[in-house]
User: Which sequence fits this backbone?
């Protein structure tokens, strides 16, 4: 179902910024609508000047799924043709040669793209989604990907940089990103000049410390081309639903369990003895790992939600993230993928470390994050790795870092809530339950009837 874009005031301001500046950065939080604002601006500009084809650079999952989905979501952009440059070299080359208005690609393939095109560069516009991926650019060193793009970036007449955390590791992150906008005219022609003007060596003789005047002067120099928008008022959490699609093999297992209450997973026959067990198995399959016996051994069936979590962590760019999980199998996968992550256990030091900002990712079961637990000092980002039927538990963990607690603790910052959901699965049914309080059985039976009719 397509939607008509009705921008909030801050989105209107952001869109106007992109219309007025040929090379600009938009600093807006995840879930703030950076993608739709950018598409809307390009669509309006297309009536005035050539802005397509556009190259969108993004983390792999975002390039592969988010941008194509956003293009078809909005009525104003449905006419745009999208080609996703991903896969093997042969598949990437075919996608590159396919006529399209928007080409989406992961940053990892930048060196390949530049080498493949040679002196040709067909893109009128470059959109760097998660601009901080280019912060390591230097004229004579830095990352190979950023340097590859640096050879061609200024051949495109427009460049749009999108991020929510432009300098989470300090002001030094800004030079590489800004070079793609102005070739160093605002912050210095080289990183060395930037460093010499606004930094001094730290106590160890290696690290850089900004001089007292650095913050204000750098902000003033970037004010015209870098717009910061905060999003919706802070008295309500900013909700961002992230949808993933089950791979074909996982979809087949899901539908087999849904229809037959039985599925063969890694050679093990997994049976749901009643409707409640079936619902739980469907949740597990939607999340990516299913229990295969009574000993709670589990098998991974896909990692789509883990990839979506990767995107959230990348955009958080070092800011602490609180994650709500349902199944121990998911907890184990998350802790394996993020070695620095911690589990919210009974040790009081865990909460102390979280509130001190020492834990980048804290995984908590909603039942363990009970009433009265104060986690708001540690962060303002919550991720639901899937959703559960219990509305009280759903809201309870949100309240641990919620807007009221943030305000009471003196934190003037919004709360971001990301729900990672598998499309056309029990996740959607659970959301229906949370919003309507209909019975679980009614929702599940209706969904089964609807799919069989389809």
Assistant:
């Amino acid at each position: 179902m397509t939607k008509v874009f009705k921008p909030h005031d801050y989105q209107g301001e952001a869109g106007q910024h992109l219309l007025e500046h040929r090379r600009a950065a938009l600093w807006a939080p995840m879930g703030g609508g950076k993608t739709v604002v950018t598409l809307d601006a390009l669509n309006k500009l297309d009536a005035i000047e050539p802005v397509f084809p556009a190259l969108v650079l993004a983390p792999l999952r975002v390039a592969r799924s988010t941008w194509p989905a956003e293009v078809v979501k909005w009525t104003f952009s449905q006419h745009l043709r999208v080609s996703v440059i991903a896969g093997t070299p042969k598949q990437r080359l075919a996608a590159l040669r396919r006529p399209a208005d928007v080409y989406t690609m992961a940053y990892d393939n930048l060196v390949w793209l530049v080498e493949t095109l040679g002196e040709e560069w067909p893109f009128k516009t470059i959109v760097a989604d998660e601009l901080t991926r280019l912060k390591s650019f230097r004229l004579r060193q830095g990352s190979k990907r950023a340097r590859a793009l640096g050879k061609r970036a200024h051949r495109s007449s427009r460049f749009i940089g999108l991020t929510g955390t432009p300098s989470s590791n300090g002001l030094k992150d800004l030079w590489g990103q800004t070079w793609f906008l102005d070739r160093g005219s605002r912050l210095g022609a080289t990183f060395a000049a930037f460093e010499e003007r606004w930094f001094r060596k730290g106590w160890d003789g290696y690290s850089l410390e900004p001089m007292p005047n650095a913050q204000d002067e750098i902000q003033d120099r970037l004010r015209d081309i870098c717009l910061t928008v905060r999003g919706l008022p802070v008295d309500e959490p900013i909700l961002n639903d992230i949808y993933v699609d089950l791979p074909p093999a996982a979809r087949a297992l899901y539908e087999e369990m849904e229809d037959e209450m039985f599925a063969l997973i890694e050679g093990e026959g997994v049976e749901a003895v009643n409707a409640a067990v079936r619902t739980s198995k469907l949740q597990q399959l939607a999340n990516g790992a299913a229990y295969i016996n009574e000993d709670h051994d589990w098998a991974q069936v896909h990692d789509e939600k883990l990839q979506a979590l990767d995107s959230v962590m990348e955009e958080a760019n070092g800011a602490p993230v609180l994650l709500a999980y349902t199944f121990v199998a998911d907890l184990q996968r998350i802790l394996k993928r993020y070695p620095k992550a911690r589990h919210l256990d009974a040790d009081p030091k865990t909460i102390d470390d979280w509130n001190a900002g020492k834990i980048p990712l804290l995984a908590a079961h909603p039942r363990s994050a009970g009433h009265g637990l104060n986690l708001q000092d540690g962060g303002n980002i919550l991720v639901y790795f899937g959703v559960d039927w219990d509305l009280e538990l759903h809201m309870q963990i949100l309240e641990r870092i919620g807007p009221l607690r943030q305000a009471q603790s003196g934190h003037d910052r919004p709360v971001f809530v990301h729900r990672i959901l598998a499309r056309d699965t029990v996740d959607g049914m659970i959301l229906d339950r949370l919003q309507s309080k209909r019975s679980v059985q009614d929702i599940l039976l209706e969904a089964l009837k609807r799919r069989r009719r389809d």
The first strand starts at residue 23 and ends at 27. The chain has three domains: 9-228, 243-302+438-453, 303-436. DSSP finds 18 helices and 19 strands in the chain.
